[in-house]
Amino acid sequence: MKHFFKVFITSLILFSLVATAGIFTYVKYFSPENIAEAKPGNDDDEDDDNIDKESETPLEKAMRESNRINVLVGGFEGPRSDTIMLASFDRKTKEASIISIPRDTYYYREAYGRYEDTQKINAVYGTNKEKGMKALIEAVEELTGIPIHNYVKVDYKGVRAAVDAIGGVEVDVKFNMVYSDPYDNPPLYINIPAGTKIIYGDKSVEFLRYRAGYPDGDLGRIKAQQGFMKSAIKKSLSLKLPSVISAVYPYVETDLTLTDLLGLGKDAIGFSMENLDTVTLPGGAKTMGGLSFYIVDGEKTTELLYGMYGINLSAAADEEVQSN
Q1: Residues whose CB falls within 8 Å of the CB of residue 39, separated by 6 or more in sequence, listed in order
Q2: Helix, strand, coil shares of the chain as percentages rounded to 5?
Q3: Are 196 and 171 in contact (CB under 8 A)?
Q4: How far is it, in rounded angstroms, from Cα 308 to Cα 321?
Q5: Are 256 and 152 in contact (CB under 8 A)?
Q6: 0.85 exceeded by the pTM?
Q7: Fewest CB within 10 angstroms: 14, 62, 147, 193, which?
Q8: Of 104, 47, 39, which Cα lies nearest the Cα of 68?
Q9: Would you call 105 helix, strand, or coil by DSSP?
Q10: Which residues contact 278 (CB under 8 A, 6 or more apart)?
Q11: 221: helix, coil or strand?
């Protein structure tokens, strides 16, 4: 079964936890002994004496001083991470970004042939069984330049549970989605007419699994998934979240502790959908060695990072020139 859709319900869970005060009520009710004021990334202060501040770039300085928490969100098809997203939340400005990383993104590793499937980002997890999520985190950090603090994974059954818990998700289906694969496990039968509608558990799974008819291929699928995710988050923010969280939490695997979530929930009071930005890692498709890869655009990725961390790119470039 194609498990790529897991990431969207994971993102829903993550931002439901991060972006509302409801998590405070949930944690206090279910685990009062774990209540604390600690926040992710603030457990141990770095020794400033060990940081060479004079050699820092403006971006490195901004990252060191940032209040952002960056979480890797992954959906898996067997050993392959079929969908990868990087969710970032600034605890001070209450701004959030979700960066989708195409599964065919080229990530070169010396141990494998230069133009093999194993050079795609979605192969990293399964070919590093001992390191698992740590290997994927390291790969995404190298590709994006963004430090990752935590990760989230979720079982596909959580899709039905969460979508039903929030009373369905409104989507704009651009064309008739019709597809069948009786040999998939479980068998896949998709039939969703075009138009704006509210879809529930099983239909949401169909919508997120569909991939055949997008004019721009996998990038079109990512756009549709991002639209679904934003609609689901918007719906969840209008509800009392404890019931949603309790319905989905059994399917979640994360290294975020309840204490972490409590700190994030308190910091996220006042978050709104206007502060959520969804983008795809800059780049483009390219055929190499007979295979299709997604090649990251380093310059545009740098521009994306500077924007995320609130740095004026032109001013930063002038500052670096003057320091050299």
Answers
A1: 91, 260, 263, 264, 267
A2: 45, 25, 35
A3: yes
A4: 22
A5: yes
A6: no
A7: 193
A8: 39
A9: strand
A10: 97, 98, 100, 226, 229, 230
A11: helix
Share of the chain above pLDDT 90, in %: 33
Helix (H) or strand (E) holding 182: none
Q: Is the Cβ–Cβ distance between 311 and 59 less than 8 Å?
A: yes
C-alpha pair distances (Å), 85 with each of 70, 93, 128, 145: 10, 21, 19, 14
| CB atoms near residue 160 (< 10 Å) | 19
Above 50 in pLDDT, residue 299?
yes
Q: What one-letter code names the amino acid at 303?
A: E
Task: Indicate if the pLDDT at residue 35 is higher than 90.
Answer: no
Question: Quick one: pLDDT at residue 145?
Answer: 93
Look-up of token digits 């204490």? 259
Residue 204, sorted as left (phi over 0), alpha (psi -120 to 50) or beta, turns out to be alpha
Q: In the chain, how many H helices and how many E strands?
A: 11, 12
Asked if residue 185 has pLDDT above 70, the reply is no
Report how far apart, in Å, the C-alpha atoms of 16 and of each of 11, 23, 174, 244, 273 are. 8, 8, 27, 9, 11
Higher-confidence position of 26 and 166 = 166
β 276-280/96-101 pair status: parallel
Distance between CA 170 and CA 199 in Å, rounded? 6
Half-sphere exposure of 65 (CA within 13 A, CB side): 11
Amino acid (1-letter code) at residue 284: G
CA 236 to each of CA 16, 92, 201, 271, 299: distance values in angstroms, whole numbers, following the listed order: 7, 22, 15, 13, 35
